[in-house]
Amino acid sequence: MTLNPADPDFIAHLHQLLPGAAFREVEPKYLEEPRGRWIGQAGVVVAPATVDEVATVITAASKARVGVVPYGGGTGLVGGQILSDGSAPVLLSLERMRAIRGIYPDENVMVVEAGAILADIHAAAAEVNRLFPLTIAAKGSARIGGNLATNAGGVNVLRYGNARDLCLGLEAVLPSGEVWHGLKRLRKDNAGYDLKNLMIGSEGTLGVITAATLKLYPRPATEGTALIVVNSPEAALALLARARDHLGEAVSAFELMHRTGLEFLAETLPDLRLPFADLPEWFVLIDVGLARGLDPQASLGALFADAHEAGLVSDGMIAQSEAQRQQFWEVRENIPEGNRRIGSISSHDISVPIGAIPDFIIRGNKVIAALGAFRINCFGHLGDGNLHYNIFPPKGQSREAHVEKREAIKRAVHDLVHQMGGSVSAEHGVGRLKVEDLERYGDPVKMSAMRAIKAALDPKSIMNPGAVLRDPSD
Amino acid sequence: MTLNPADPDFIAHLHQLLPGAAFREVEPKYLEEPRGRWIGQAGVVVAPATVDEVATVITAASKARVGVVPYGGGTGLVGGQILSDGSAPVLLSLERMRAIRGIYPDENVMVVEAGAILADIHAAAAEVNRLFPLTIAAKGSARIGGNLATNAGGVNVLRYGNARDLCLGLEAVLPSGEVWHGLKRLRKDNAGYDLKNLMIGSEGTLGVITAATLKLYPRPATEGTALIVVNSPEAALALLARARDHLGEAVSAFELMHRTGLEFLAETLPDLRLPFADLPEWFVLIDVGLARGLDPQASLGALFADAHEAGLVSDGMIAQSEAQRQQFWEVRENIPEGNRRIGSISSHDISVPIGAIPDFIIRGNKVIAALGAFRINCFGHLGDGNLHYNIFPPKGQSREAHVEKREAIKRAVHDLVHQMGGSVSAEHGVGRLKVEDLERYGDPVKMSAMRAIKAALDPKSIMNPGAVLRDPSD
To answer: What values do phi and psi take at A54, rounded to 5?
Structure first.
């Protein structure tokens, strides 16, 4: 059965149920997404101030069979926040639920509402000398509810895990409109099925996260960063193993980058100072956070010396100051912006078993070469087996000239990833962009379990219709 | 609709489907559990050798509406492996699926079958210089499938997490008899709902785990252990915070113990050498695993000096040898055996927010004192907010003389835990022992979501009937 639109009658009904402050103009910012692939639609934008108001919206939508699209910071890259066709939904923005409900430094715990911006959570943790380690490029506008709904990743997963690993409890409104009060501050709780992890990563299709209990960490006593030129992706992998032998969990980021990324930065962001005289083919950024009694420069120096003796690395720089650490990180953090300015034909957020990364890079390059003389910018979270494998037109040519190859490129890359036991959605989620990929590559038994769970918890299919799973009425 | 028994006709049918080697005698060992509370029943015991044979059993049971009780090492403490009433089920033992399917030291990954014994997994990891950190007292007989099905905890959760945090993927047979192939070796995979974590901790009620991809860790360069006498539970908590400030994630265990535990050991295991001349009221065992360049004795010494100056601790011993480390750990590891020999009236596996532990201990003691002059042995994983809070008869009296108080004691302790935002099942699971507790204390919206998920994935309710959730036909 198809959903009904959020039409004037339904909107008038919502106005009876919610205070005027809960309504927002249907502005373009709610209907656009970062890559400009789709334009969304909405009958009404509501921004509830409390979990009870969220429950009121969902209950009304359920009764009227109107779709609900939850909306965090709008920074998702797979269209999970954008419904571009079908009946106009309610767009439910968490922007007014930004409170930090409690901080418990002794427990390394913080309780926040879903609309809190990631960077504000970082700052609140820092104020009590703690660390909330989840961090992504969009941290200045992404909201924690969206980070959890999509199980966001980022550069610190190697040490601290994905968003799901940093969450102890949730408050959420289920598709029935009922509120699940699951904000416990417990490290161990084996009382029943893991509804928390089912909600995390379900991208708003099983309910709306309204608040979360987050794990904090002690801040490392000292931090250090190095940029190291590696002889090959295989050497990078061997360097990672040595880094963990030397430093254990202290390795908080291990990012692989390619010369193409530096060339794009030189071309599109000429004011950015690149820390290399000659651009290396492959290099890594290593970030460490150490316990008391260890010196980051000495530790990274010992690691470099060891790796150099083993023939893995040819050159390297260890940051001598916090300003230099920032400079090294700026290289990494600007690579997506350089990509955006060049304009990719097709971008892929893939993972493979860590040991298969070098082979994937060799085979991927062959697969792409067979389709044309494209440029490849391959970079990402080597320590997690997660690469951003993005394909660009030859130098001097436009993306538009090659856009008809997009599907063939994507299919070739995803087929290879699937053959190698990988995932075509490593950290960005499925959204609406990858629904077909999930149908093609997903385990059929898991897919049928997912559909059964969706039907059981959201029998009217109102929650974020068409995201993750195809709308059954389509 | 009630289930059918595994009767001679059904058993004859299974004999047509499976090789003779898959059948086991219905021996008492399959029907007993460690605390001797229940005796189980089974129409037939099958021990398949492959996932396809497991699927054959489940498919047949589904068609015939016969219950299936998955069986690992039989070490669970909440009766999840024991069906003592209702129609006789198939007992499905994973004991023949013990293979280690692959080890990938460079990826810190191991793929094992569900019947592998935890201690054998430890040994296999050690052979490639890696650590599988999950460890519990029953490690010599517990099987990893059961550890995952119950989301086992243990002494290293503080640093490495529960069983679910150590699992990257699963192979499982769902209640339909279909096989979910989810053994990916990926650190990041956001392709759809988190079926893995839904299966983990569902105690065999949503399917049978047949294999798992496990996370390994680098072995710490050096390890150290201290026993430290703390002035109070509050001081123990402050010591934990200081330990993490000094040592970061290197603190791998932080166990609180009480004099009662030592008195029980002196009484029941007189050959065990206790490392204290005068028995302290409260003390902790701290275990650390350090990166290169740090000395465990020096680090623990600095921590002790700091805590002593702050007035938190009065005495302490730092292990000077591996033999002494083992001796310190033996105290901790024998406490459950001492308890068993004394004989508890009621045992409680509870968690509260870490910061609430001292208050819980004060209020718990008052609650128990109001019920009688009982002895309390309170000990456990302070760093996880998880205490084993066990109640014993007064000295010289038998458990039997007080067994009629068991329900009142349990109710009083669990009511208090619930009031304090805690969990009445921290690490042992729900099984059949705590079904009523879950109904009493569980969030009703979560409970109804759980029932909907169970009905969606196991519409005939054949999987581990009556565990976690009451059988709908009851």
So the answer is: -60, -45
- Is residue B172 assigned to a domain? yes
B353 interface with A at CB cutoff 8 Å: yes
Instruction: Measure B86 CA to nearest chain A CA, in Å.
Output: 22
Domain co-membership, B268 together with B408 = yes
Residues of A in contact with B425 (CB under 8 A): 189-191
Residues 169 to 198 of B: which have CB under 8 A from any A CB? Answer: 174, 178-182, 184-195, 197-198
Interface test with B, best of A107, A190, A290, A430 (most B CBs within 10 A): A190
What are the φ and ψ backbone dihedral angles of A425, each rounded to 5 degrees? -135, 90
Same domain for B361 and B305:
yes
Is residue B4 domain-resident?
Answer: no
Record: contact B180-A446, CB cut-off 8 A:
yes
Interface subset of B 379-408, CB within 8 angstroms of A: 381, 383-386
Number of domains in chain B: 2
> Are B176 and B136 part of one and the same domain?
yes
Q: What is the mean pLDDT of residues B226-237?
A: 98
Local confidence band at B148 (pLDDT 50, 70, 90 cut-offs): very high
- What average pLDDT does chain B have? 96
Residue B474: its pLDDT value, please?
65
- Which among A203, A218, A233 is the end of a domain? A218
Residue A424 sits at the chain B interface (C-beta within 8 Å): yes
Q: Does residue B55 belong to any structural domain of this protein?
A: no
A260 touches chain B (CB under 8 A): no
Confidence of residue A208 (pLDDT cuts 50, 70, 90): very high
Burial of B200 (0-12, 13-18, 19+ CB in 10 A): buried
- Residues ≥6 apart with Cβ < 8 Å to B290: A248, A291, B220, B221, B222, B223, B224, B247, B250, B296, B299
Which of A469, A332, A361 has its CA nearest to residue A422? A361
Domain enclosing residue A406, as ranges: 222-419
- What confidence tens digit (pLDDT) does each residue in A308-336 have? 999 999 999 999 999 999 999 999 999 99
A295 and A168 within one domain: no
Write the pLDDT tens digit of every residue in A153-200.
Answer: 999 999 999 999 999 999 999 999 999 999 999 999 999 999 999 999
CATH assignment at residue B227: 3.30.70.2190
Residues of B within 8 A of A187 (CB-CB) are 157-158, 351, 354, 383-386
